[in-house]
Amino acid sequence: MPFVRATAYSSSANLGAGFDVLSLAHQAYKDVVEAEIVGEGKSEVVIQSNSDLPLDPLKNSAGAPVLNLLNEMGLKYRVKLRIHKGVPYGLGLGSSGASAVAAVAALNSLLNLKLSLEEVVRYATAGEKAVSGSPHPDNVAASAFGGVVAVVSTSPVRIVTIPVRLNFKITLIVPRIHTGEGKTKRARELVPKQVDIGKMVENMRYLSSFVLGITKGDRELTRMGLNDEIVEKSREPLFPYYPKIREIALRKDAVGVCVSGAGPTILVLSDEETDLEGIKREVSTVCNGFETVCDFVDTQLGGGVETERFN
Please, where in the chain does CATH 3.30.70.890 lie? Predict the structure, then answer.
């Protein structure tokens, strides 16, 4: 039987003050999902995986959006998904988003549904809802489109790719910790429901600065933009090492630093002015002080989801 293999990269969302709006794809990790039709007459999803994530499609970030797509379009197929997890989950690296996008893109190609990338994102958000309770589109948008993206509307879904004219490298500081199930849900519950108008205005300035900085190639604007007075502050109890890591990175002239998505991974942007090795040395000491080993993953911006058909 023919099948389609889709590959989607990991991602970092929020990017300072861009909560649920900004994200970027990186080549640090990738998920691969293969979709195959194994029967007809009923909308059904069967999952095989190299991970210990739930095989129940209603609780699986790849299975849920595919089942939703089948039901919404009235497609009576039994679909087998083979999920090869490469993006570690629970670390703020868009793991659920990568597999959701890859699964939807694979079925889209397999059945020649001609979905646009924005439609792929819309369906893929069902995967985020299945695992976190919230259909947030930022990670799936980055994995689908690649590069740096902004979610400018959720109803209807509209994604804008932000042109990057700033030369920077990406380093992920990834703690070797197991956050357990429901980490993203817990992180979202910490976000305040009401905020001071002054903090909101300050965050709008940060978001504008970041977008203008990377589009104009302005290092200082980008550095100023990777700040957040609301979401990162509210989540600091989840990663108490972050303020010290941030201080080290900025002191050693990083372009910018922020929490990757819901954490605990930290995203550092650097260039030729940054003492990146010095950052790694000092951060290792900080991580050890919290009885945690941190890995440093140097990477670059990733492209959008790719598909390959096998007959």
Answer: 169-299
